[in-house]
Amino acid sequence: MSLYTTQSESFFMPFSDNTFCNFGFESTTAKGFGPYPTHEFGENGVLFFADCGVNPDPNSVELADIAIATADNFKNLIDKEPKVAMLSFSTKGSAKHKMLNKVIEAVDIVKQKRPDILIDGELQADAVLVESVCERKAPNSPIKGNANVLIFPDLNAGNIAYKLVERLAKAQAIGPIMQGLKRPMHDLSRGCKYMDVVYLTAISAFQ
């Protein structure tokens, strides 16, 4: 586990050239999750965010892999059905831009590879978190405004959102939790608090 004195880049650098190939550094994704104080959103207040710390600009295949890994981790750690929302600035074609293509393609890839996962996109954040908004913007969405796994289109969006929710909503953010590895390995933010270390250590032991 990397603590708050280490930059993420220097933490991951030894693994980028397979120096520690026995560690199984095949793919990397990260997520942060935090119980919202009122338990209004997610699964009794728990939401998983991805990718919050590793992949700057994933393509559609990588985005699909992030969604699958995060859904599986949600199931393993929370023991509830993941409801995966692929986030964007558009909801079901409300906007047209090439940036949306990879999100739409990623949804199709996940449905093909893992039809057991409940997933929908492209969707705006309010449509996946508020049922009344979902009814207006995406009435046929299986998410129904009750998403508990949020997949962001790139690291800019994921990292900013995770830190805003932690600081402004005063949610307990836990992570980022590394995914796609054969053994537990995690990288804490340099802005972490002591309880962040406690929570992530507990998750590492569980894994």
Automatic annotation (TrEMBL):
InterPro entries: P_AcTrfase_dom1, P_AcTrfase_dom2, Phos_Acetyltrans/Butyryltrans, PTA_PTB. It holds the Pfam family PTA_PTB. Residues 43-205 form the Phosphate acetyl/butaryl transferase domain. GO terms for molecular function: acyltransferase activity. It comes from the Bacteria. Keywords: Acyltransferase, Transferase. This is Phosphate acetyl/butaryl transferase domain-containing protein. It comes from Desulfurella acetivorans.
